[in-house]
Each structure stands twice: as C-alpha cells, then as structure tokens.
Specification:
Rossmann fold, 7-stranded mixed β-sheet, globular, binds S-adenosylmethionine, alpha/beta
C-alpha cells in the first residue's frame, strides 16, 4: 500500500490516531510561533482531518485546507460543517492549488516526513505566502524507528534541524528559527513489540 492509500484508508479514524500520537500543545505552539491574527488567511497543508485548522478557526482566521486525500477532506468537511466555512482543496505537495502570494500563513504539521522531496515542498509552500507571510512547520526530529516506514508510511525518519534551516533559507525565507516544541510524538508498532517517542521541532520563516 502506498502513502496515499494509507491515508485514504485511515481517514475516518485519523482524528483518534492523531490524538494518540501528539497533543494540542503542538498546535498551540505552531499558532503562537506565527502570532496569528484574526481575519487573516492561512493555508493548512497536508491538513488531514483538520488538527491545525481547528485552532485557526478558533483564532478567527480564514482557512484554505489542502490534502492529497479526498477521504481525509471528506472527514474534515463533516467535522467542521456546522461551525465554519473552510475552503477545501485536493492537491499535491509540489503543485499546491493556490496562486502565488495568496496567504498570510502556511502551516504544515506532521506532513513533511511523508513527502518525496521535502525541500521542493518547502519552496512550494513559500510560493503561496504573501510577502511578509510566515511558514510554520512542525515535524519530527531525526530518529531510528524503521517500523514507522512500514506501518505509517513515513518516508523520512524525522529531520536534522540543520537541513530544515537550510531548506527554509534556500526557499528564500528570512528570520528562520528552528526550536523545540517540548512535546513528543509517541507511537507503538502494530505487534506492540516496538515503541517510539520522538521530539518535535517547530520551524518558522518569513517571506
Ligand atoms: C500524518 S498526516 C497529518 C495530518 C494533519 N496535518 C494532522 O496534524 O493531523 C499527513 C497528511 O499529509 C497528507 N499528504 C501526504 N503526502 C502528501 C502529498 N504529497 N501532497 C499532499 N498531501 C499529502 C496525507 O494525506 C495526510 O493527510
């Protein structure tokens, strides 16, 4: 099964799975890092069932939610139908369905480690930011738990923070900061024989 098939298949359970992996502290830290302002427009890239979007709606932002998985977007639509209007778009990491210079903020939580070419995706997320806009990525630090490749379809076993800093800078972002969220992502292998607890970083940069 490929990564897309995996997320299509777990779409209806994603909210529970996600809650078992990491807490709302990650979202709080991502939004605080960007110092989001009510009324602004934010993109939630690789939105899943809307973990980051939920915080953005609560903070009064307009949200464009993008994911490759239609079932994930459908789960998210059901979740937010009664409370807010979200602009849902199905799209791919290297060709986001948003025009240049369109959003004040772009967020991507636990998305980068699923991608084939993270530096290209960072450039693409930078493209959609307005000048002065902020990109915030929250993801895993480097780790060695191979079972996440097979069972969760991770392509990257986390990232070296130096690489993240370099990719942000190469994408043309300034004021680049990579810091610790002080929160762990925890998971167990299907057999229960292996477990992982990996620290999470928050990276930000301004266009
Ligand atoms: C681990 S989930 C994280 C979802 C959400 N951000 C969260 O925090 O719960 C990764 C998401 O990225 C999406 N994704 C993975 N590769 C993608 C790609 N190449 N283009 C667009 N979305 C992708 C998946 O469909 C999935 O919904």
């Amino acid at each position: 099964m490929g990564g897309k098939d995996y997320f299509d298949q777990v779409a209806d359970q994603w909210e529970n799975l996600q809650a078992s992996f990491y807490s709302e502290k990650v979202r709080d830290r991502a939004l605080a890092t960007a110092a989001v302002k009510s009324g602004a427009t934010a993109a939630d890239i690789g939105c899943g069932s809307g973990f980051i979007t939920e915080g953005l709606i609560r903070a009064g932002l307009h949200v464009i939610a993008i994911d490759q998985s239609e079932p994930m977007l459908a789960a998210m639509k059901r979740k937010f139908a009664a409370i807010a209007e979200v602009d849902y778009r199905c799209g791919e990491a290297e060709q986001l369905p948003i025009t240049d210079d369109a959003v004040d903020y772009a967020f991507a939580n636990m998305y980068l480690h699923h991608l084939e070419r993270p530096p290209v995706a960072v450039k693409e997320m930078t493209r959609i930011l307005k000048p002065g806009g902020t990109l915030v990525i929250t993801d895993l630090d480097s780790h060695t738990s191979e079972f996440l490749r097979d069972e969760h379809h991770d392509r990257w076993l986390g990232f070296d923070r130096g690489d993240i800093r370099q990719w942000f800078t190469e994408a043309g972002l300034g004021r680049v900061v990579v810091d610790c969220v002080r929160e762990e992502c925890c998971a167990q292998s299907d057999s229960g024989s292996q477990s992982v607890s990996v620290s999470i970083f928050v990276a930000s940069g301004e266009k």
